Amino acid sequence: MQLKRAVITGFGTVSPLGSDVIEMQAGFEASRSAVQLMEGWDAYKGLRSLIAAPAISLDASSIPRQSRRSMGPMSIYSVQAAQQALAGSALPVGLLTSGRVGCVIGSTMGGTRSINEIYENMASHKDLSQLTSMKFFQCMSHTAALNVSQHFGINGVVMATSAACASGLQAIGSAYDLIRLGTQDAVLCGGAEELFPTVTGAFDILFATSTKYNDRPQLTPRPFDADRDGLVCGEGAGILVVEEYEHARARGARIYAEIIGYHTCASGQHVSHSSKESLAASMRGALASARIDAGAVDYINAHATATLQGDKEEAEAIRDIFGDKVPVSSLKGYMGHTLGASGAIELVASLLMMQAGRIYPTKNLERVADDCQGIWHVQKQLERQVNVIIKNAFALGGLTASLVVKSPD
Amino acid sequence: MTKEEVISKTNEVFEKSFEIAPERLKPEAHIFNDLGLDSLDIVDLVVGLQQKFAVTIRDDERVRNIRTLGDVYDFIYLLGQEGSVGGSPSK
Fold it and tell me: N or C, which end of chain A is more exposed by having fewer CB within 10 Å?
């Protein structure tokens, strides 16, 4: 069976750096940090990381109430990012309702704010009578996928990946497979996440958050840095239009990049620890899938969240495969870790670098840690033609995902 | 509670929960056909009214007969007459 080719014909983001892709790119250009002290978080006993990177989004009132009523913040971010992606792709509106367009959007755990509101009624008051009909729709694992598909009338394959911080990249990988197999002509895909103290708290309990910079939030997270002390949670959504190559060509669509390889796997070893073996297996699998050697890669967009253990393992895995020959940077220092959205938002950022011929450096990386040496860390903006990119995303559970994209022919 | 108070508070529920402009809130307005609510909205209307008037009406069979905004006013006013408004649930 001849697999079809999958290309990216549109993308959009709502991120901590801005309500669209242009604002996000301006944030990278200005080396701006979106990390800030979160008002009211000090009320949570035991929460030590009081900082986060909230999304900047437009007023949602332009979304009709009948659509919006089932949306929590992450679904609103997703719809707004999808609007950008669809506008950029110029995908015919009629196609959305043809059954040939799908929607795959992942997140860590659905709408955390609504989940918390339900808990407050159920656990504190043992009272169901105050729950509105939409609360469950706002918190389901596939809330973003269902809301985007409902809002745009998409009636093809609709599903949600749920692999914590690899959810967004797994969603794009799944879309890639749907296109390659000929199941769909186009898929809106990506990841979404919303901030809430319980989310940061989940990592804080594991000693994985940044806790030493509450008074200097813009200096953290610090991927690969000697003074890194953990991740900072962010939120937002990244949505891409992945389309079958001939379909895109036939309608004269602009092609931003082609997805040429993807792999996802797990360590099978530990519920929380990253392992360099599974990280390397993910990247090697993606390269094999793309039928290219490591030397063909021009840039690695690292997952690197600034945890002590994760950054070390990723640096070692990259070193084992690429040595110090390929530029590497992480974008967490600008936007925090947008968790289930990160793979998609950062892939879009990587496409911007491909377009601009410019690699954005790892913000807050001032002194490379001893345990992260041996790879080409980009510490200053680097003017460089980028044709082939590998994007990594890793997650609790030892899950890993890597996607390879190349510039259009 | 006076009928005027019932109307005012009920309208607040429709404005807040369903974003309906005050000028559209006429007693004769059909809550499905004119105000655009659907079956899921009725769940939220019940929750909104329960919170606003401190009543429990979810299992009250009379809710099923409501068609217009005026029906809502009359139902809530009747609950008040029965002494159900303000904490004592209706049957």
Answer: N
